[in-house]
Amino acid sequence: MQEKDRGSLRGEGWEEIWIEIISVKATIPLVMGANIGTSITNTIVSLAQAGDRNEFRRAFAAATILDMFNWLTVLILLPLEAASGYLYRLTGAIMDGISGNTKFDRIELLQVITRPFTDLIIELDSECLKKIANGDDVESLVKRWCEKTLPVNGSHGFFTPDPSQLLDAHNMSMGECSINTELGVNASSTEKQIIGNLTKDWKKCHHVFANSSLNDTLIGVILLVISLVVLCFCLISIVKILHTVMKGNTAKIIKKMVNAKLPSPFGFLTGYLAILVGTALTFLVQSSSIFTSTLTPLVGVGVISLKRMYPLTLGANIGTTFTAVMAAMTSSGESLKLALRIAFCHLFFNVSGILIWYPIPYLRKVPIGLSKSLGNTTAKYRWFAIVYLITMFLLLPGLVFVVSLGGWPAWVGVFGPIGLVLIFVIIMNILQKKLPSYLPEKLRTWDFLPLWMHSLEPYDRPMTAIGRWFGKLKRCSFSKEKNNTLTPQTNFAMKSSMESIP
């Protein structure tokens, strides 16, 4: 791998850690996958409104509209990229006109508020992350020493380099990224004494796990559980607050303002203005997940329409790319050009998707229509939301990865027939809905197939039983209360309500 063809990876919320271990071409599919993966947050957020079928229908449709946009864009741009190197060539041409001698200071917005709190919980050693990426053995990612002093001729000089540099100065070699009180177990008594003298004036970090002897796996599990509990609490609180506030005239006024259009003759620009608003707000919070997860319950309670949610979501997709661009600009030299190139790949992937799925009204209806269909399905079979999460974000990516190991022959052999079946189903659905008279009477519906092949009804009873057995969502998702029981009349009303969303 040539040095000039290496790229850098950056995730939302991480320290700016440029890891030159992967080619730019190989990074582009990873960027596409990251775009899909980040939308899982919205889907999880929508589950907080599963107690009310109508709200859940709208919330789940709002959550999955980003999924549909991302998947549809990947289905078009991934083959295009493989065949022509569209994003690779485009960003390469842009980078040819940029000098690598410039370096910018990193801009922090929301992090200025959140970082002091997160640093009280956990701090990670960025040097460890780099070493892990390079395949080096690392004992712990947790940063325990925040201030280190080195005795020099009887004085102490303040410094914050990799501790291995300090140990090398004393003819010692340590493989760990950071020294803690547990280090030196296998060292000689002389080495232990040197380590003790070196660290006696060092200052420990102040986060919760600074003095903990727990390993990284245990710390990670603890933080994950706490995060999920806090997330669930926040989601439930948001929904309850919205139910309390969004009532009567207040809800009507807010709904009218949020879903208003620009005056004639500029009404057609309303959606594009919403894209700009979504971009700006996401840039401020520097996370598309935060912004879209906030919108999801608002759509659920009916304050924001699904059609207005769509351009706001597209704007969020653009806004989140600016985070990577800003982080890339803090590098210098060749690293700046490499980091910017990956960031621009992310940017132009989303811009290209918007140009495909938004300006043309007919194509705009495709992701919206798919999300509406998922919303209606989930309102009727609420267990489908869990199946959707597992399938779209675990099983399907896993299948694609496994098949890709076999190369193009395996790819064509597995997904070729699946693609042909999907194309046939799509064409048949369009003909059944738009031109049923052109089809033989038997093909005007899917009733000629076994029920399990065209309906979720056969799966409803066992899935409901499994849900009750686990005791999850017993009151909201699987209850048989009269006010939540779907009759043909309520199902028709729900469908009509979804189709009438402006």
From TrEMBL:
Q: Which InterPro entries match?
A: Na/Pi_transpt
| Pfam families from the UniProt entry | Na_Pi_cotrans
Q: Which residues form a coiled coil?
A: none
Q: Which GO terms describe its molecular function?
A: sodium:phosphate symporter activity
Write down the superkingdom of origin. Answer: Eukaryota
Q: Which UniProt keywords apply?
A: Cell membrane, Membrane, Transmembrane, Transmembrane helix
- The residues that cross the membrane are 59-80, 218-242, 262-284, 290-306, 313-332, 338-360, 381-402, 408-431
Q: Name the GO cellular-component terms.
A: apical plasma membrane; brush border; vesicle
Subcellular localization, per the record?
Answer: Apical cell membrane
What GO biological process, any one, is recorded here?
A: sodium-dependent phosphate transport
Q: Does the keyword Manganese apply?
A: no
Q: How does it sit in the membrane?
A: Multi-pass membrane protein
The UniProt entry's sequence similarity note says:
Belongs to the SLC34A transporter family.
UniProt cross-references to NCBIfam families, sorted A to Z: 2a58, Na_Pi_symport
Name of the protein: Sodium-dependent phosphate transport protein 2B-like
